[in-house]
Amino acid sequence: MRYQIPFLVLICLLPSIVRAQTTFSVSFPASQSGQPLDGRVLLIIAKTDKTEPRLQVSDAVETAQIFGVDVNGLKPGQAALIDASVFGYPERSLRNLKPGDYYVQAVLHKYETFKRKDGHTVKLPMDRGEGQNWRTAPGNLFSKPQKISLKPGSRQAIAVLLDQVNPPIPEPKDTKFIKHINIQSKRLTEFWGRPMFLGAHVLLPAGFDEHPEARYPLCLFHGHFPDDFSGFSETPPPANMDTTDYIERFKLYGYKKIVAQEAYDFYKKWTGKDFPRMLIVEIQHANPYYDDSYAVNSANLGPYGDAIMYELLPEIERQFRGIGQGWARFTYGGSTGGWEALAAQVFYPDAFNGCFAACPDPIAFDAYTVFNLYKDKNAYYSEGPFRRTPRPGQRNYLGQVKCTLEETNHRELVMGTHSRSGDQFDIWEAVYSPVGPDGYPKRIWNKLTGDIDATVAEYWREHYDLLHILRRDWKTLGPKVAGKIHIYCGDMDNYYLNNAVYLMEDFLKSVQNPSASSEVAYGDRAEHCWNGDPTQPNYISRLRYNTMYVDKILRRIEQSAPKGADLKSWRY
């Protein structure tokens, strides 16, 4: 028997059926590339042209719409098709877009083929100096924004031409105080099967040239990809500097001038007669998955931890007269950098004499933001017998939810399959997971549904859960890290990172033989990036990493430096 749709139902469905006929064809001309290209074609649809559509994709409720498809060997003039079957964010399908006027732009995020040492061949977007950002990556093709009208009752085929290309990014230039270093890593080159490099921006102490006999302690400032050493300026901001810029997060006008003033104030402190002379280093370790490597060895990213510790830091200390011993090295950072600072202290306990970890990414995976990675079955929903409640992904200091974990992960899934979005949950997966059968990171959970893979979670636990590792190995680690761990976090962290800090604090307070002798502090109602100064608003303290911990570093050196250590040549 032939099934027929009732007439009234057909009338109700008609708008969706008509909109489902809208298709976009995205292509590039031979003038941009005569060769076929691999990558991810991203189509962005926005309601406003105040900025380019590609700059409007975010976790905010005002986000633009985005769709994505992988392309392999896309030829000049050949079209990548975006239709109603392609998964999107926040709407999952083109058929769900309402009729009306929109602004459309497309991007081709280029992938490179890597033949790795482990025998796998993978296609990934190599960082090209931009900090792993598909919007600005040099060489990525994109289209000019164009206005379109989605019309009910008509079939539409819209062509989008990728006739623009992102330009190269200039290399930063050396100054009197800021130097730049770039080395090819033997370890990483061997792993990836092509030349791989590590870089750093080094802030030299005042009097470096005038005191050639001095050797200096080193502070490793971990964080996201730095295009140059930031927060340091030899000139004050102009008195008439524009102060009309507005920062919604801080509800503040003129923040750019505040930032510029803080940078100049740091220069004055740095060159003051009482400031201790040391090296401050920001490293560049952007890679094919993210804007940094998390500074550890990883099955998917390669031996970045060892490359940084045994290749890059010794070269920096050789060139710039670092003391080069564990008692004279410290590390600090916030967010990703907070996790990295603590991880460096845990995985290389003798190499550092103290870590200052602010608002660290989850340092205990049984508080992986808002859920327990080991006991919960689903990352996106808490589930009972009769309902499923979405898990929040971000909040403000009042607890008002910005987005859910599902929404953030679906945005990443549109931006890149196989953990290739270049964003937060995908890089955790790339760093912490074992290699999957296809050569890409094994999924910790189904990216579409949120269902957790318990076997992958167990691998994470044994290799990267910092609380578990400290608890498991305290007998050997404890004597090496006692007195070195300092953790700071706002109790209203936007990403719920304080939850894991609470668990770490409980352990550090209770552990014995030896006692941890650690410090854990919280900022009342403070959001992400609170880093330990209760006397200043966070919009100020977050700009003072390089001066906040100096007193504690000096006390630690005085207490722990070995007999005969150089405590004078750098105190001029």
UniProtKB/TrEMBL annotation:
Key words, A-Z: Signal
Keyword Signal (UniProt): yes
Protein name: Esterase
Species the sequence originates in: Spirosoma taeanense
Signal peptide: 1-20
InterPro entries: AB_hydrolase_fold (IPR029058), Mycobacterial_A85_antigen (IPR050583)
This protein's record includes keyword Signal: yes
